[in-house]
């Protein structure tokens, strides 16, 4: 995997909503020209969320629209860390100072749940869109206006009361296998990149003749590409079953032919 692909994937991933929803304004990511961009390698042992923070930071620093004033600033009260500020940016044109919280998520859409904003859950059921969105609004934004937050910003000559709060919330969404009609509004349907299914659906004739690849976490953001080492259905089934036994839902790339690729989660639950 070339490093630049990770940066392109980040830029190409749409925001999970447009403009303002849920009382939170979406950050409008600037256009970034990657022609003269030389990315700094990102350590493989970083969690995917931290890798995305590094990707975002490098892209923002390369853009002409924003200056990065603060990146990953811990807010402490005595010896206790209350939280961390992802980014504080200054718009080069308007001079507006913006606090941006970054989130990059993979959610499956579970239509068994009535409300669209509650339908988005992590493939391992360990997180949910609604909980994350509430945390951004009620904890991460509020942190900057706490006593410790305003003191930390003051030491950097940043006035908390002048800040505009926004989130850069990008997501890849996976709809249920063989389900077309979805009512997602106000969630951005352009975030749908694939589907999800259970093992019993994977063990059908639809999949047996295809080739597969199980991407590592660092490759999750990418679109399937031809240059990987594809494996047979039998080998893929074994690899998937091993993951499911550990209560992990693997992401799978599938090659139907040299022109047709699909991306899906097989969930363990």
TrEMBL record:
Annotated InterPro entries: DUF1853
One Pfam family from the record: DUF1853
Organism superkingdom: Bacteria
Name assigned to this protein: DUF1853 domain-containing protein
The species this protein was found in: Maribacter stanieri
Phylogenetic placement of the source organism: Bacteria, Pseudomonadati, Bacteroidota, Flavobacteriia, Flavobacteriales
């Amino acid at each position: 995997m070339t490093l630049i692909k990770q940066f392109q994937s980040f830029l190409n991933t749409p925001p999970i909503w447009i403009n303002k929803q849920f009382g939170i304004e979406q950050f409008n990511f600037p256009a970034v020209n990657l022609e003269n961009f030389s990315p700094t390698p990102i350590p493989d042992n970083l969690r995917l969320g931290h890798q995305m923070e590094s990707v975002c930071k490098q892209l923002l620093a390369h853009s002409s629209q924003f200056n990065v004033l603060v990146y990953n600033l811990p807010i402490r009260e005595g010896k206790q860390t209350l939280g961390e500020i992802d980014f504080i940016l200054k718009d080069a044109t308007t001079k507006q100072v913006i606090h941006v919280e970054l989130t990059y998520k993979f959610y499956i859409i579970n239509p068994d749940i009535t409300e669209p904003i509650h339908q988005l859950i992590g493939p391992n059921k360990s997180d949910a869109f609604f909980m994350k969105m509430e945390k951004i609004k009620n904890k991460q934004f509020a942190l900057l206006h706490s006593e410790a937050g305003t003191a930390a910003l003051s030491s950097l000559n940043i006035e908390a009361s002048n800040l505009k709060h926004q989130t850069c919330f990008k997501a890849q969404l996976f709809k249920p296998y063989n389900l077309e009609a979805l009512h997602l509004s106000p969630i951005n349907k352009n975030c749908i990149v694939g589907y999800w299914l259970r093992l019993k659906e994977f063990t059908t004739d639809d999949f047996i003749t295809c080739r597969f690849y199980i991407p590592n976490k660092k490759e999750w953001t990418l679109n399937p590409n031809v240059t990987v080492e594809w494996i047979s259905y039998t080998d893929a089934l074994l690899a998937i079953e091993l993951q499911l036994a550990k209560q992990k839902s693997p992401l799978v790339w599938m090659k139907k032919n040299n022109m047709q690729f699909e991306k899906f989660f097989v969930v363990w639950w």
